[in-house]
Amino acid sequence: MPTLTATVFLVVYLGLVLGRLPGLRLDRTGVVLLGAIVLLATGAASEEAALAAVDVPTVSLLFALMVVSAQLRLGGFYTKVTERVAALHLPPLLFFGCYILAMAGLAAIFSNDIICLAATPVTIRLCRAKKLDPVPFLLGLACATNIGSAATLIGNPQNILIGEVKKIDFTAYILAALPAVLLGLAATWLVTAWLYRDKWHYETAADTGAGPVFEPVFDPWKSGKGLLVAGVLMVLFLAGSWPRDLAALAGAGLLLASRRLHSRDMLGLVDWQLLVLFVGLFIVNDTFARTGLPAGLAAGLAGRGLDLGNPGWLTATVALLSNAVSNVPAVMLLLPLAPGPDAGLVLAIASTLAGNALVVGSIANIIVIEEAARHGVAIGWRTHARLGLPVTVLSLAGFLALL
Q1: How far apart (Å, rounded) are the C-alpha atoms in residues 105 and 152?
Q2: What is the pLDDT of residues 127-159, one digit of tens each?
Q3: 3-class SS of residue 162
């Protein structure tokens, strides 16, 4: 059934580009799930093949880290950190620099999507209190967390996938990625400083007032417990002595066995939509790969000089694809097609940096804009692109120069 499989694949990725399917109330996750269901129901993918296609260590690690982050969010840790940064009495430009460094550091350990979700409402409240325009800080939040998440193999979903599939050493990856991350943060600071020179203060008509804010009260015990588990996991990841997924699941299990936090509350903060998206894409992409069409296309492009084994071509390809379908689906599509020992490193860093260019490039961007709208701050795609595009170009150029 190659024709049916190819059709489903094209429809799924069209849905990822559009964010929906015309005439149906489906979001991106719904489109992917429907595609996987069609493949299974028609026999294009067997149940055995579908189960084998799902990379269980990746899904397990992603789930477990979401539980750890849920503990910290419910303990008010992210709110406390953001408030501590906001308490610094600095000029706006220096304050912005400290802010993006803090958000990038959090994202490297606790995932960019989680930090954006937790920090957006707090950032808006604190900017209003300091009479600062929240828009540059929210844009900086999206850019900095995307860039910061590239520093580790647990900073974002696509890096988790790449690290598990390519079996990349955790410490070696950090050492390789850190220079590109620092250059990217410098680019974010410089471009924002240029765009918002003399425009830091609260003057935007896009801000229409506050909405309801979910900010858990800081609890030292709950936050301390989450930080202890996160710290132990980082040591284990750096040592490389225990599979990352199993170590993270053990940590998540310890946190779920709590007398203070109900498991329903913690699991309620797990991004089940993202987990379903991963499972569905594993099935859709694997079924399409079995037709031989992707490998044939990659070989044909390589014969014309567009070799995905070349870091430059791979960076350009993943950058363009990330801003068409978002960086997670882009990586899942390109990962089996990118040969060479450095393919994982290039995909992880380039896809993450490229996610800043357009709103659709990264889920983190969408989270910031949607959360900001809920709290009275409107950010259009053009406003985002004015910062995101130059930051992406400078970041990717710096990364390629370092290779």
Answers
A1: 10
A2: 988 889 999 999 999 999 999 999 999 999 999
A3: helix
